[in-house]
Predict the structure.
Amino acid sequence: MFDIRQVSIFSTLIPQEAREIIPYLMPDKFVKKETIFSEGDQSEWFYIVTKGKVKITKISQEGKEIILEIISPKDFFGGIAVVRGFPYPANAVAMDDTEVLKISRNNLMKIMDRFPNLMYCMATNIGDRIKDSHEMIKSIALEKVESRIASLLIKLSDKAGEKTADGMMINIKLTKQDIAEMVGTTVETSIRTMSKFSKQGLIASKSGRIVIRDLEKLKSLT
C-alpha cells in the first residue's frame, strides 16, 4: 500500500489522517509516450506518480517541445490547475510505463477543507515550481547551451541525486533528447555538450544514469 505521506504536501499528516485520504485515491496506468493530459484540457484530476516518470511540456512557437519539469515517484502534478479550476496550462506525457494515483477535483477540495494545512503546503510547492519554470524559460532565452545543461544537471541532482562512490548520481534515466528538450536545444548539441563534460571529468554514465563527478566545477559553468 502506497503511503500518501511520502508525498511532500501530505507529509505532515499523522497515520490516522492519511488513512482518511485512501478512499479518494484512484489508481491509473499510462504506457510510455502516452499523453495524460494536454494543454487546455479541463482540469479534472490531481495526479501522484507511484512508478515511472512524467514530463510536463510546452510547445514553442516553432513547434519544438520544451520540457518544463520531470515528475518522479512520490511527486505530484496538475495541482495548480485543479485547485484554481482552470484548464491545464501544459502537457503531461508518460516518459516510461507509469503508474499514478489520482484524485478528482471535487474530492481534492473535500480533502483541503478537512485538512486546511494541505492548501498551504501545496501553495508553497507550486510557488517553487513556478519559480523554477520561469528560471528555465529565462535560461533558454539568455544563457549559452553549456550553462543551461550544467544548470539542469545541478537542479536534477538536487531533486533526485543519490551519493555513490563515483559521485552524485541523478536517479532518473534521461536520454540526450530529454536533456535537449529541457534546455531548448538540438539533440546534436546536447550530445556534444555532454560528451565535452564527460571528457572534462565533470560527469560519467553508469547504468543509464548520469553521475556528476565534479559538482563544484559544474557549478562554475552556470
Q: What stands out?
A: The CA atoms of residues 17 and 115 lie 9 Å apart. Helices lie at 15-21, 79-84, 105-114, 117-142, 145-160, 176-183, 187-199, 215-219. The domain at 4-130 is CATH 2.60.120.10 (Jelly Rolls). The chain has eight helices and twelve strands.
